[in-house]
Write a structure and sequence with these properties.
By secondary structure, the protein is α/β, with parallel strands linked by helices. It has 19 helices and ten strands.
């Protein structure tokens, strides 16, 4: 109760715009020095090596992975096309949760935006109706969603597929800030359980899924007074399945409760979320109060401070490992593209083997697509290649895939070779087994990524003449 009274006093003081009140507010602002220390904002980085590694990663993707991706139309299977902007983009931190739980206040606090013209608007009522992307820029300015989607150098151009109504609800804020040089924040509209999805005017869940798929860290924020779990929140946690390692649950505004009540709320939060997070090790829950003013008196100040520093260390870990995570992401994508190419090749090979002069092509291929196990499509891939059965895509996905892509439009992998370009399968396997691991090891060893051995990575090598006798 005392914490609640203190917060009310802060709000009342904020409504008064006198020099005396401003001086009083400055005296109750929380010290932010631990933010800069934990995130190492004062440390200088060798941006040249980072840029060189990204350019090398981009070259490997375009030369070795993208050709097979385009030849076998992988994007139409997964609906995830990797752009140059996504390869070179900074780590993304996504803020999700119910309305008025302190998502925007938390961003203002981390960036020190309070009392500046560009602080995110906050209030007790639902205030954020847009997806707000806070990113680095040379000067402070806002960017319309239509402009962000039209700029191919950014990683947000694929958002255009969600329509103009969504782009009007997308806004970017650029500002020169040390933290934003290393990370991008995304603030999302709060979940309102009594609102129908159709009232938003755009596919809210699909947009959330797009950001979830690309987020390096996901903060799901809760208020001690808003622990009810409705249909929209349940849908959100379904979308987070498989991303548990990126999730951090935050019980915000913790200093508004006395210790005994806080313990009960903490237990109630786990009780509410247990059916939604069905994993052996649940995501970590951080208990603190993320806003610029001092903690309420007679609360667990030291605990809140330690929890806050622990959360900042998690954020710093993502920043420090951003290049390694990017390489691992591209390699994982390459593995999926390779498996897709092998499967399409097997479908094409089986189709040609079963076709005869009197066969009906449509009936033959329908039989293959409807029952691929009868023709050992998937089992043959597992038997002949180093493919994990856990990486194989859903069989039904290929029925839809070939429904819009005729089997006759694809060539076998053995025919996907050229003298100058080499073979698609050889190039993507070399990228997965040698080029990308070589780039990763060069970063970990501290070598210049632009100077490490071409023998390991194949950078700039001349194509071998396969028709010359040795």
């Amino acid at each position: 109760m005392k914490g609640l009274v203190s917060i009310c006093c802060f709000v009342f003081l904020l409504s008064l715009a006198t020099p005396e009140v401003e001086e009083l507010l400055d005296s109750i602002l929380r010290d932010r020095s631990h933010i800069e220390e934990t995130l190492r904002l004062a440390a200088m980085e060798n941006s040249g090596d980072y840029t060189a590694a990204l350019q090398r990663l981009r070259k490997i993707y375009h030369n070795s992975i993208r050709p097979m991706e385009q030849a076998y139309k992988y994007n139409e299977l997964r609906q995830h096309e990797i752009s140059d902007g996504e390869i070179t983009s900074k780590p993304m931190v996504l803020f999700l949760g119910p309305w008025s739980v302190g998502k925007s206040s938390m961003i203002n606090y981390l960036l020190g935006l309070q009392d500046t013209p560009y602080q995110l608007y906050t209030g007790a009522e639902p205030t954020t109706s847009e997806f707000t992307v806070i990113m680095h820029g040379e000067k402070i300015r806002s960017v319309e969603g239509i402009v962000m989607a039209a700029d191919s150098s950014r990683s947000f151009s694929p958002l255009e597929k969600f329509g103009q109504n969504f782009l009007e609800k997308l806004i970017g804020i650029e500002m020169p800030h040390k933290l934003l040089e290393r990370v991008t924040f995304v603030d999302t509209p709060g979940i309102i359980e009594n609102r129908k999805q159709q009232e938003r005017g755009y596919p809210f869940n699909d947009v959330c899924q797009w950001f979830i798929d690309r987020a390096d860290l996901i903060f799901v924020v809760f208020d001690p007074t808003k622990l009810d779990v409705g249909l929209e929140l349940e849908m959100l946690f379904r979308q987070l399945k498989g991303r548990e390692s990126q999730i951090r649950i935050i019980l915000n505004k913790a200093d508004s409760l006395v210790t005994q009540d806080l313990m009960r709320v903490y237990g109630a939060l786990f009780w509410s979320l247990a059916p939604l997070i069905n994993v052996t090790e649940p995501p970590r829950v951080y208990v603190s109060s993320f806003w610029p003013y001092d903690y309420a008196p007679n609360t667990s100040r030291e605990l809140f401070k330690r929890e806050e520093i622990s959360l900042l260390e998690d954020l710093n870990q993502v920043i420090e490992n951003r290049l390694e995570n990017k390489i691992a992401f591209i390699r994982q994508h390459g593995i999926r593209v390779r498996i897709h190419g092998l499967l399409v090749d097997r479908y094409v090979q089986t189709f040609k083997e079963k076709m005869s002069f009197f066969s009906d092509p449509e009936l033959v291929f329908k039989e293959i697509v409807d029952d691929p196990d009868k023709f050992y499509i998937f089992k043959s891939i597992l038997a002949k290649t180093n493919v994990s059965k856990f990486d194989l895509p859903n069989r039904d996905a290929y029925r839809d895939f070939f429904g819009i892509n005729p089997i006759t439009s694809f060539k076998q992998l053995s025919a996907q070779c050229s003298y100058m370009g080499g073979c698609l399968l050889d190039k993507i396997e070399k990228a997965i087994t040698a080029d990308l691991p070589g780039l990763l090891s060069s970063i970990n060893s501290g070598k210049n990524p632009s100077m490490f051995s071409c023998e390991a990575t194949g950078c700039g090598e001349k194509p071998k003449n396969r028709y010359r006798r040795h």
